[in-house]
Amino acid sequence: MRYFSKVNDLGDLHQALQEALEIKKDRFKYVELGKNKTLLMVFFNSSLRTRLSTQKAAMNLGMNVIVLDVNQGAWKLETERGVVMDGDKSEHLLEAIPVMGCYCDVIGVRSFAGLKDRDYDYAETVFNQFVQYSGRPVFAMETATVHPLQAFADLITIEEYKEVKRPKVVLTWAPHPKALPQAVPNSFAEWMNAADVDFVITHPKGYELDPAFVGDATVEYDQKKALTGADFVYAKNWSCPGVTNLAEYGQVLSKDMGWTIDEEHMSWTNDAHFMHCLPVRRNMIVTDNVIEGPRSLVIPEAANREISATVVLKRILEKL
Ligand code: AN0
Ligand code: CP
Fold first, then answer.
1. What is the mean pLDDT of residues 205-210?
2. Residues within 6 Å of ligand 2 by CB
3. What is the tens place of the pLDDT at every residue in 57-66?
């Protein structure tokens, strides 16, 4: 594997899940694979889990790791071509990327959506520049529209905790004070569609996700109906994807606290497990009682980020 941003990049998903379980049993099994290989993690945005779990994954594989926080200590980077650089940006990404490629063997990129220009974000302009100009394998650590390491960890978690063969998994929008990207729900939807689950998406009108990610999933605007009988409740906020009204792209259309996942919402489910990728705003997205409750999987999900990243890096190293 040379690039990782989509579920299809893994090929056979069942096999990838088996590999994840194998690595979970012995996470140092492939410690020789990354000897004298260097991972560069480039962060344009903040991170706790991705930073730690991906670095740990690289260490499991015997790699060296360099972390670059672009906005803390590096030169400010211009990302658009054709700009007269007379502002505060000292360097262009088009030089910075090949330079970064000189010092490493693999690059991970975190670059969130700007949420201003839908075409720019959905063209994955920054990630694709790394693919085009770094000369290195590149993987997404949450880009403008996808967060595949998260979705892979979420699927591993569902496989581990499911109590029926084909569980009902519900992705529900929940309120948040600030505009957030669609990357997490996009990838979650893409991966659930590829998995053997009964997948339902619920959100207020106007929050329709991009059809490329929704696929054949059921969309139910009545949150109570959607949650009824759920085995897994995956809560997440996202801003307007601009599908039904482009002018609203990236906006907060609703802060309706009736969508917050509390014990009453969970009572409609089939004693569902609660999931969220974290970081989460308590008592906006989910109440204290639900996230602290016995059915909450937020910590096992985060733990599985190490496993998903180890599988992905292993596959990249095998093809170097
Ligand atoms: C980010 C998001 O919603 O995409 C990162 C989640 C992993 N969340 C925030 O910025 C709070
Ligand atoms: N879930 C996740 O990607 O968290 P971070 O933003 O802390 O990396």
1. 98
2. 47-50, 142, 150, 277-279
3. 999 999 999 9
